[in-house]
Amino acid sequence: METRLHEAEVSLGESPLWPTAAMIAAAVLYVDLPTRFIAGNSAGAFSVVRWVVPALTAVLLAALVLSVPHGRLMRSLEWGGQKLRVTRRWLTIGLIGILSAANGASIILLVHLLVNGASANAPVLLRAAVHMWVVNVLLFALWFWQLDGGGPLARPACAPHERDFLFPQQTEPSLLVGGWEAKFLDYLFVSFTNSSAFSPTDALPLSRWAKMLMLVQSAISLSLAVMVVARAVNILK
């Protein structure tokens, strides 16, 4: 197990534990959402929909674990380094995309229920909103981490003008000489502050896609804060 973890860390350029933990946490929080925010009022579909996302998450995570470079399976298949890197990258992006689609559907369902005056008690609304907000933070952190500078594998060799985010450490020559590189936890901090302050507070987005991604994240967080909290306060009154 230690050998496999070391191989994964070497191939990724950083420990895979934090990104993996973020994916698992997002799937678990989705499963724990109140029923109506996963399948609406359809009790029949609920039992299927609730477990589709975690099942796909488990399958794709297993594929990522089994496809660790220099592992037995990959040596037996004789996959080339470039082919393996592309495959693992698309598996990761596909997994993040599935979780994002599931959380997005829950947020849309939540907004729809609120706009149409569906009855719900304050604790359920607040619990659902907190779940969705945390998942939102985790997923956008994963998107930033996976897309900035071509992803964690390509990022170290990325030229300054090709970066999508500019971290404060990258403007400090003494830190750059020491080999500072952005890791997943740096993107998690960016995602958290963007969801909390609705604006960049640490790293600055440079590319247009990074700006649009941060805009979408802020809009989602603002919608959850305004609509859900306002409705919950109204119910509490």
Task: Describe this protein's structure.
- The protein is an all-alpha fold and 237 residues long.
- The chain has one domain (2-236).
- Helices cover 71% and strands 2% of the residues.
- It has a two-stranded antiparallel sheet with strand order 1-2.
- Helix 2 runs parallel beside helix 6 and helix 6 packs antiparallel against helix 7 (122-147).
- The longest helix is centred in the middle third of the chain and has 35 residues, at 81-115.
Task: State the separation between the terminal residues, measured CA to CA.
Answer: 54 Å
- The helix fraction, in percent, is over 70%
Largest sheet strand order: 1-2
Number of domain modules:
1
Could you name the ranges where pLDDT drops below 50 across 5 or more consecutive residues? Answer: 1-6
Radius of gyration: 20 Å
SS class: mainly alpha
How many helix segments? 10
Please report which band the strand proportion falls in: under 5%, 5-15%, 15-25%, 25-35%, 35-45% or over 45%: under 5%
Query: What general form does the structure show?
Result: globular
Number of beta-strand segments = 2
Biggest sheet features: 2 strands, antiparallel
**Element pattern in H and E:** HHHHHHHEHHEH
